Write a sequence for this structure.
């Protein structure tokens, strides 16, 4: 320690960390430990000296801080709050008594933070646990199952498409039933024309019947044409939704079969006109 001058400490603090630890260690006797703990002990002393240098301690106080750190380290195996308070009192009042109030607070905070935060680590190291294996327990976290992509299930868009298809199907069936009743029902209904033969001439009766037949036939054909247009429009909408749904989900919905042959209905209408004209002529 006689060779440990202030100029020597100043030179040590200019070195890199590894070189500084080795050179600083040559000025002390390390009889406390003869295993790997000696290395931790030397690092602890060097860190304390670096702290004192960085906070403007005189080189004499830097040396005294390093000596105090060397004395503190072997006592950390059973450190508690009471022992920490005694150590701080010894360092601040006896080991390094010439510090300014600000420097005393800084050194006290440094030792408190270092020794309390790493208290269990220092207890393990100083207590000789450096060569022991540490068993680390890992807790496995069970994650929730991965949800399948919406493309593999019934997503909202597909559900809405199915609802629209159902409504179109029902509307289409209703229109087809109405068209069927219209075609199967009577096209012409003679009211009281035949019972008025005694009041009018035969020619007036025939003319009246033809006029009524023409009007009723026209109304029926208009109704049938309107129903055919509605059915065709519903079929197009149904086909459009079915094609769109099959491209997304791979499933197709076959539109209901409709017997709406426009050419056939036109021929039937012509035949009915011909028959009614012949009956009127007779």
């Amino acid at each position: 320690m006689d060779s440990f001058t202030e100029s020597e400490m100043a030179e040590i603090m200019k070195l890199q960390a590894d070189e500084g630890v080795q050179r600083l260690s040559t000025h002390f006797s390390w009889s406390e430990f003869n295993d790997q703990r000696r290395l931790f002990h030397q690092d602890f002393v060097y860190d304390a000296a670096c702290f004192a240098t960085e906070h403007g301690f005189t080189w004499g106080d830097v040396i005294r801080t390093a000596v105090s750190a060397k004395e503190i380290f072997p006592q950390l195996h059973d450190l508690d709050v009471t022992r920490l308070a005694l150590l701080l009192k010894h360092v601040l009042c006896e080991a390094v008594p010439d510090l300014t109030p600000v420097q005393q607070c800084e050194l006290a905070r440094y030792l408190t933070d270092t020794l309390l935060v790493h208290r269990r680590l220092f207890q393990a190291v100083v207590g000789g646990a450096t060569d022991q294996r540490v068993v680390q327990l890992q807790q496995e976290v069970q994650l929730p199952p991965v949800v399948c992509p919406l493309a593999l299930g019934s997503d909202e868009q597909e559900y809405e498409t199915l609802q629209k298809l159902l409504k179109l199907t029902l509307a289409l069936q209703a229109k087809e039933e109405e068209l069927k009743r219209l075609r199967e029902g009577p096209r012409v209904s003679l009211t009281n024309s035949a019972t008025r033969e005694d009041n009018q001439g035969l020619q007036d009766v025939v003319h009246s019947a033809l006029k009524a037949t023409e009007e009723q036939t026209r109304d029926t054909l208009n109704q049938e044409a309107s129903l055919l247009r509605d059915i065709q429009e519903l079929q197009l909408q149904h086909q459009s939704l079915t094609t769109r749904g099959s491209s997304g989900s791979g499933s197709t919905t076959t539109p209901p079969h409709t017997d709406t042959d426009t050419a056939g209905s036109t021929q039937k209408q012509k035949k009915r006109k011909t028959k009614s004209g012949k009956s009127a002529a007779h």
In short: Confidence is low (pLDDT under 50) at residues 193-197, 250-264, 273-282.
